[in-house]
């Protein structure tokens, strides 16, 4: 989903919110494939799976694209009521569902990150901000729903004198759809990190791991990442 480039904005340049995960990795490469001048932007907000940032740095270095990691850990006390930001809260396991994974919601995360990405876009004259909200997130994460994305797109058009377009190409797509698109582009998903835990190997039990494994199973390909545990019901 996106609107036409705003008047006066550089339609050939975009800021990609790049976490280091599967979705943003695919969005990043889509933007590159479009021939855009891509500026990758990552955030350290005190997430327990900060390993994703190391992956993001390595990928951007390999691709030779500008990459900025913004340290916003100062706001950690504002968003620490989540299993993703508070190690004292047990990480839930199982498939995505509101009743068992609600503790992984980080308060207002995407509004915060999008606001900063829009600021960077205005600062460098980019006409667009890309991010990887997708259909599989709608059940659990309010700031990945179409209503939020449409509203933020409107805000991005009026918050500054230089309007910015918000682009969420997978807003109506599943994780399996995103993976299918990436595989068609020849992407290697070994260069991504999905697990909500930041250990040496992906846990294979958290909702994020299970959704990833299910996406690979739906595409009849093997996940190149190693796991501590791979639930049989996910890969059968």
From TrEMBL:
Pathway: Purine metabolism; 7-cyano-7-deazaguanine biosynthesis. It comes from the Bacteria. Keywords: ATP-binding, Ligase, Metal-binding, Nucleotide-binding, Queuosine biosynthesis, Zinc. Zn(2+) binds at residues 195, 203, 206, 209. Its EC number is 6.3.4.20. It catalyses: 7-carboxy-7-carbaguanine + NH4(+) + 2 ATP = 7-cyano-7-carbaguanine + 2 AMP + 2 diphosphate + 2 H(+). ATP binds at residues 18-28. Its cofactor is Zn(2+). InterPro entries: QueC (IPR018317), Rossmann-like_a/b/a_fold (IPR014729). Catalyzes the ATP-dependent conversion of 7-carboxy-7-deazaguanine (CDG) to 7-cyano-7-deazaguanine (preQ(0)). HAMAP family: QueC (MF_01633). Belongs to the QueC family. This is 7-cyano-7-deazaguanine synthase. It comes from Vreelandella venusta. The gene is queC.
């Amino acid at each position: 989903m996106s609107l036409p480039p705003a008047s006066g904005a550089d339609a050939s340049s975009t800021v990609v919110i790049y976490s280091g995960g599967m979705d943003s990795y695919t969005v990043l490469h889509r933007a590159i494939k479009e021939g855009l001048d891509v500026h990758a932007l990552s955030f350290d907000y005190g997430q327990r799976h900060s390993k994703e940032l190391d992956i993001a740095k390595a990928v951007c270095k390999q691709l030779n694209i500008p990459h900025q990691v913004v340290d916003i850990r100062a706001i950690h006390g504002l968003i620490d009521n989540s299993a993703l930001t508070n190690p004292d809260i047990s990480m839930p396991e199982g498939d995505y569902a509101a009743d068992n994974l609600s503790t992984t919601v980080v308060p207002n995360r995407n509004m915060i990150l999008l606001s900063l990405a829009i600021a960077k876009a205005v600062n460098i004259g980019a006409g667009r901000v890309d991010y990887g909200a997708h259909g599989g997130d709608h059940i659990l994460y309010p700031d990945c729903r179409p209503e939020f994305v449409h509203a933020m797109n409107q805000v991005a058009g009026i918050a500054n004198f230089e309007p910015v377009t918000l682009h969420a190409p997978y807003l109506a797509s599943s994780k399996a759809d995103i993976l299918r698109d990436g595989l068609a582009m020849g992407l290697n998903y070994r260069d991504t990190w999905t697990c909500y835990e930041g250990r040496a190997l992906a846990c294979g039990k958290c909702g994020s791991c299970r959704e990833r494994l299910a996406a690979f199973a739906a595409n009849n390909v093997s996940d190149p990442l190693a796991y501590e545990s791979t639930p049989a019901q996910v890969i059968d």
